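Problem: given the chain below (529 residues), write out its structure.
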Amino acid sequence: VSFSTAATCLFALVSAADASLRSHQQPSHRRLSYELIAGYEPRSQVTSHNAIDLDQEMLETQIALGTDNSFEKAKAIYTDGAHSKPVATVTVSSGLFAVPSGTPVTGTAVNGDQVTGTTAQDYAAGATTIKIVYDTTDVQESYVGCQVGASTDPNTDGCFAGSGTLTIGTQGTYEYTYDPLTNNSNERTLQGFSTQAKEKMHDCPNCPYVTYEKFYQYYGQFDYANQWVMAAFDGGATSFANGNANFRSYGFTGRGEAIKKGTAYMNVWMYVIRELEDALDDCKSDCTIENCNDDPVHAWDEAVAFYSGSLEGTDGEGDGVLLHQLADKRCANFRTCGDLAKDSSGLSHVNIEIFREFTNGKNRILRGECTEARANKERIEQLMAVPLIQGSLRYAYITDKEVDAGGEKAEAEGAVFAAAVLPLVHACNEEAAQTIYNNLKVGQGGSADFAQVKQAFESTYGCLQVRCEDIGGLYDDALGEYMEGAAPCNTSSGSEKNVGLIVGLSVGGIVLVGILIVVWNRNRTGKEY
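Solution.
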């Protein structure tokens, strides 16, 4: 029997035995049905979170126009938002009684339908200006009817009407006024993912988070991602401890690439990790109350929403603009799509593995297996670095080998991909990080040496916990071969892999025997352990 056949049989038997054990040992959890997010089944409502990609899409549309006016509109979308967590600020005609945060509010929408929300914070008696967070639905397509903020195409149909009466909790009704086009804002923005980093990733309980700390130590700024994006918007320069960028020589093309990739691959990327960490911070391993880990699972669901976005659809085959889409784009360049990471089309191997970890981590948190879920979080982080490395390598190759086809656009793309991953490399090998930066920095002017960049990255794969097979190599589909000097490296020799397999099968066999004995005894006696 071949090793691969034996491994397959062993995995199937262990999985069946494990399922039998869990059916006896694990408590049942309340099952709620929510729309899938790129194939992932959330346990909570995160439709408003999932809509953050609509801000990114609208920002990219304005960036593509390449004018001063369109860049100002894109900047407003970045800072003020347009689609996620909408809030109305209204003025009531008479002072309120004291109102706690989360008090239900009901009124009439612009289109005449009923609209509901909750108070955004506590309000003291006598307050006349209040913020109301709009309620959202479980259906992504119609998650909320008020999308204004800095939108270039505002939708006010489901916003509170400009004037009328509000029913606030049990206090009765109040007359109010406000302007639906100027007083509807958004509490969740792409900029906020970075400007809130100090509070939510560095100074919080159980902080600083390990991965975020690497970025803070490298850049020396808590909101490094926001500073990168704002410097690109303004055509200015950053003031980092390392990895600086001067965008003064760039036109709309280069600045646009730095902005739109910075918002997605720097701002959003880190906030996904923040939500995973938050879920583990709140996870309770010793709770005896059913569903006591619903709140941490909600944070985990938020991470999936921010990673994917609504445009990916329920199956992950949509045309998104965030990290899920990035992984699928890069796998086509590096021939790392599919289950075996050997294809040039389809779902990326990175996404297949990340979503397996998303699901397994969620289930572990639901069972109170908090320590075990941390392993899922860490593997997700490692895999999330793969498309960033691939992007850096792709544009190092273009700016080295295809200078005429690259120009400012390719240079800016290489710079932002490098900026998104350099702190991780730096934590492993400072010299390698400096080599990559020198070759891919803003203003390198076609001086990149692809071989140096490739070698520098490869020297840190072991530390980064990624394999050569995860990264792949730049592949030319037309010629059916890897580009010159861009083939994948080799993680280990075949003999080393076989030794590991033999040891794994031997240990697995011993474990399997023990599991089967326990299952047989339980089925014979009818007792639970």
